[in-house]
Amino acid sequence: MVVDAFSSFSRRHIGTDTDAHKAMLAAISAESGASYSSVESLVDAAVPASIHSVAVERSTIPPAGTERQALAELKAIAGYNRVRRSMIGLGYYDTITPAVIKRNVLENPSWYTAYTPYQPEISQGRLEALINFQTMVTDLTGLDTANASMLDESTAVVEAMLLARRASKTSTNVFVVDSDALPQTKALLANRAEAVGIELVELPLAEGALPETAFFGIFIQYPGSSGRVWNPAAAVAAAHEHGAIAVVAADLLALTLIASPGDFGADVAVGTSQRFGVPMGFGGPHAGYMAVRKGLERQLPGRLVGVSRDADGHPAYRLTLQAREQHIRREKATSNICTAQVLLAVMASMYAVYHGPQGLKNIAHHVNRTASLMADALAAAGVAPRHGSFFDTLQVGVAGRADAVVADAAERGILLWKVDSDTVQFSVDETTTPEEAVAVVRAILGESAPSQLGFKPLSRSIGQESARTSQYLTHPVFSTHRSETSMMRYLKYLADKDYALDRGMIPLGSCTMKLNAATEMESITWPEFAGLHPFAPLDDVQGYMVLISHLESWLAEVTGYDTVSLQPNAGSQGELAGLLAIRGYHRANGDLNRTLCLIPSSAHGTNAASAVLAGMSVVVVACDELGNVDLADLHAKIDAHRDELAALMVTYPSTHGVYEHEIRAITDAVHEAGGQVYVDGANLNALLGYARFGDFGGDVSHLNLHKTFCIPHGGGGPGVGPVAAKAHLAPFLPGHPLAQSAQHPAFDLRTDSVGEFVHAGGPVSAAPYGSPSILPISWAYVRMMGSDGLKQATGAAVLAANYVAARLREHFPVLYSGDNGLVAHECILDVRPLTAATGVSVDDVAKRLIDYGFHAPTMSFPVPGTLMVEPTESEDLAEIDRFIDAMIAIKAEADAVGRGVWPADDNPLHGAPHTAESALVGEWNHPYSREVAVYPAAASVAGSDRVRVIHGKYWPPVRRIDNAYGDRNLFCACPPPEAFE
């Protein structure tokens, strides 16, 4: 099919057309005094000539396809997957996603195109959904405080191990691991513990074993990986006697029937909420969780939603205790996680809201009853399961027949798990039918097995000592929305409180909030992608293998690297994987002393935190007055640490939004000293198609598929952070003990040959391929854009940023620029001179933008008192101009404050944002009018434009939130209804 200009996807993705480009280039040329006749000439002038890419003669990326073509090819790829009923378990279960949640959350751009709720006044809907999630987790685990989700269960266990080491009063480095833990969790613990000097001791904790030497924590799987249910109270008490912290990985559905971790004194509970309505998706994304007892809340990694109050004294939600997070603490951070799994946490929380406590208990009873009836049938034939106490999982001895039993069940369309040659295991979930249960029993016993199960279990599978007696989900939100009508309206009510890309531009610098096209999103709910277990047999996942191979080779080509791992399920995990690969490479070469990482002062906080978690120490390199790496300081630091230098982490274009001219000199200097170069790929949106990390000295990079490659941010997650590397680092990229294949494609574009790399490093994610169910989004984006379209997107993004800089420079100084006074895909507007002259702060500007109908740019990063703006390629010129006009109007308002027109403590900026209630209820006692307060953008327009502004008004649900009050008065669960009276 020939793709003409009209039907091309790039025309739909890129918001500005040829006429807009001419107008924007004219504005940039007039402001700069240069002459730019085309987007190509602008980018050529911005990007240093020394790093421009040489066009490849052959490409693994096919020419751009239409949306219809891409979906047809994806459907063909999906057809290679075989969806059989999974009863593998091991932390992943089939589940029923209520249609009202699937349609109104997962498939709703009001939820999936939102950004992390750092501007809480316009994020109240998803913050309420997250506090529902936190309340659900604290209630079910019986602990005091839960965070707003983790990346997955196994990484949550690692984070809990690190928390235990911080919180324990002991000085030992020994951590005790339950021998009945999930296999993927054991592998992840081993990889992460080794890097930070923790010694793991594996023991059968259910049998009363504890080490004779000191230890700082224990980890208990509950129920065990083998299905065993037991009461760990004695093990927890013994750990406490040793001064250790007790960590429990608990199944949330099982906790409706079995004693909670809090009931038996656990300090920390972790796990996954996947079986609460989130499809398996071949491993992710899913929302992990972490909850802690009182006294450990300030040790929690990740994000924590709390309750504060707004300027009118009304309750309001916000992210709380942010001073403990990695982006502030940098190398002193205790975790490198800078994201959550918000979209999936919202789904899981709404599953609990929809079903309520009794509904969840009914589902759990169905699961347990089915497993118990299967156990009865097996025991009656003399094949009793290994454990008499269980919730949903049975482990059965089959005396050398494991392969045959698993194969028999597979022929019946059901996947079981082979533990060893003598043992099989299976797990029941909410979708298991009586017919499937009988089929499994017959696969084990043969056709002589009963044709149906009993009607009532012969005995209890959960003893009284393990039964739950405490209440849960008692807040009214979990008992209010039983009908679909009520649930639909609740989800709409929350979505209407929020600002997402479906309302307007989100000009966040460094975060790339671009279009998440409907065609890209369409396939993620197809059962061929959503319905597969991450440990399904290779023959069942051939479609995924093809899709992953395509994406790995495409990403390797556009970045100039040799191989890619898609396992990291967040940018922070990609950073960690890349640094662990560097560490493994040095150690394999015998350079055990190379443990120091150089990081520029402008870098994102995850860089330093990731380096520490990879077992490295951090030395900061200064930046010069132009925002570039200070070469003199870099050389001095290299000379001082030459023998211990492991790596340099550098972001390109720089964190300051400019193309550093000396990037080759930087990478050459590090290589000459024996170090490796980690190029942070966060800003690839400004480089794609014009230059490649691997060509100018990068050895390894992580990418953000939720930025450059269109996976939605989802209100703060999910994300994918692939790690790309040169061939010499390939053996040290993440492997996985349960991966369907360790091989990854290796394409030599010069010879058109195809080979393979083996990734043999330790895992960084619970699932072998991280969050694969959202990879079709990026696949579709690349397939529909083609190489030329990707390059055009970069050009449009750089053009938009320079247009914003050119038009706003006389109102707000642009802090940094590169060659020819140009910026990359983002620019930093300096608000500090305005603050000095008028008292109007960067917070005031950000909150006032809400009244104009915008999400604020990135505040005070990387420079305090500034705004980093990234318009992206997806916004049209009218929307970009609307933002620019708003910023100019805000500058005029601030100048009016400076002139004394309005008092410093009572003006439209200080009072922003303004709610409908604040404008309509009670007396108006402010020196500015109601119209100026709530319709500032309407003041300068007339006619139909004025009507459009007024009718399209976004009304914030709360006024400015008191951050300090929320930190002083920590409250992180659903507030009682009377709080809103």
Automatic annotation (TrEMBL):
Q: Name one GO cellular component term.
A: glycine cleavage complex
- What is the enzyme's main class? oxidoreductase
InterPro entries tied to this protein: GcvP, GDC-P_C, GDC-P_N, GDC_P, PyrdxlP-dep_Trfase, PyrdxlP-dep_Trfase_major, PyrdxlP-dep_Trfase_small
Origin superkingdom: Bacteria
Domain Glycine cleavage system P-protein N-terminal stretches: 11-441, 467-738
Asked whether the keyword Oxidoreductase is assigned, the reply is: yes
Keyword terms: Oxidoreductase, Pyridoxal phosphate
GO MF term set: glycine binding; glycine dehydrogenase (decarboxylating) activity; pyridoxal phosphate binding
Report the catalytic activity.
N(6)-[(R)-lipoyl]-L-lysyl-[glycine-cleavage complex H protein] + glycine + H(+) = N(6)-[(R)-S(8)-aminomethyldihydrolipoyl]-L-lysyl-[glycine-cleavage complex H protein] + CO2
Q: Which cofactor does it need?
A: pyridoxal 5'-phosphate
Oligomeric form and interacting partners: The glycine cleavage system is composed of four proteins: P, T, L and H.
Q: Which PANTHER family match?
A: GLYCINE DEHYDROGENASE (DECARBOXYLATING), MITOCHONDRIAL, GLYCINE DEHYDROGENASE, DECARBOXYLATING
Q: What does this protein do?
A: The glycine cleavage system catalyzes the degradation of glycine. The P protein binds the alpha-amino group of glycine through its pyridoxal phosphate cofactor; CO(2) is released and the remaining methylamine moiety is then transferred to the lipoamide cofactor of the H protein.
Question: What is the name of this protein?
Answer: Glycine dehydrogenase (decarboxylating)
Q: In the UniProt record, what gene is named as encoding this protein?
A: gcvP
